[in-house]
Specification:
Order of helices and strands: EEEE
Radius of gyration: 11 Å
Number of helices: 0
Strand content: 35-45%
Number of strands: 4
């Protein structure tokens, strides 16, 4: 996935393989360090 921070696009790699089961944030919503963004199955 890609997260924008201060007009910079940051690639966030997954450390495990899987299928996205749930997206836990809305587009444009601010996120915090260590916040769960997606749930993988």
């Amino acid at each position: 996935m890609i997260v924008e921070a201060m007009k910079t696009m940051n690639h966030v790699p997954s450390i495990v393989d899987g299928v996205i089961k749930k997206i836990c944030v809305d587009d444009g919503q601010p996120v915090e360090y260590d916040q769960i963004l997606v749930i993988l199955e």
